[in-house]
Amino acid sequence: MKYLYKIALRFVRIFPVNSFRIWLLRKLGVKIGDRCRLFRADWGTEPYLIELGDHVVVSNNVRFLTHDGAVWVFRDEHPGLDVFGTIRIGNNVCLGFNTVLLPNTEIGDNCIIAAGSVVKGKIPENSVVMGNPGKVVMSTDMQKRLVLMSRFKFTSKGMSFQRKKKMLLDFFEQRGKKDH
User: Fold this and answer.
1) Following DSSP, what letter does each residue of 120-157 receive, concatenated?
2) Contact 131, 139 (CB under 8 A)
3) Alpha-carbon 42 to chain mean position
4) pLDDT tens track for 25-78
């Protein structure tokens, strides 16, 4: 059974269809809310200790670590020692590319975890977190204001590949001419 479990975890990582990935992760014990988008992530060895709220995106290469492997150092003295913790993600959360979530982490609602962040502990709702260790750097309201003020924002959702490509190449070619 343990062998099948490991195969299932590997299959989840490589299978491209979101609905099948969600179905399989739920079978492995991950609690997953509605309208989630899960890319290729590492769900660790205890996926049943992970809970995602509604409308959560898990980007590529996010790692969920539900145990502390550093107890290896104490195994000669305490051979059966293990340390575990849950990971709970609130509603409307974005976990950026290469994020690492450590045991006993709880992320509140409406949070953005920036790419490459390493997060442990309790993150308050409406927070943007960056860095290693992950620190709250601003509110999601402030992040929204910055995005809406950006000259690099576009309305491209639902746009065809060709139309989007033309729009972006035109924009950046014009910008490149202004920079020279």
Assistant:
1) EEEE-SSEEEETTTTEEEEEHHHHHHHHHH-TT----T
2) no
3) 10
4) 999 999 999 999 999 999 999 999 999 999 999 999 999 999 999 999 999 999
Q: Residue 152 pLDDT more than 70?
A: yes
- The dihedral built from the CA positions of residue 128, 41, 71 and 48, taken in this order, carries a sign that is positive
The pTM of the full predicted model, rounded to 2 decimals, is: 0.85
Which helix (H) or strand (E) is 89 found in, with range? strand 87-89
Q: What does the alpha-carbon distance between residue 14 and residue 92 come to, in Å, rounded to a whole number? A: 25
The identity of residue 21, as a single letter, is R
pLDDT tens digits, residue range 6-25? 666 666 555 556 888 899 99
Q: What are phi and psi of 135, to 5 degrees?
A: -130, 145
The architecture in CATH of the region 2-149 reads 3 Solenoid (2.160)
Q: How far apart are CA 148 and CA 154, in angstroms?
A: 10
Report CA-CA distances (Å) from 5 to 55, 58, 81, 143, 180: 27, 21, 22, 40, 56
Residue type, 158: G
Largest CA distance in the chain: 66
Q: Does 103 sit behind a cis peptide bond, omega within 30 degrees of 0 on the bond before it?
A: no
Structure tokens at 68: 């502390």
The number of beta carbons lying within 10 Å of the beta carbon of residue 12 is 23
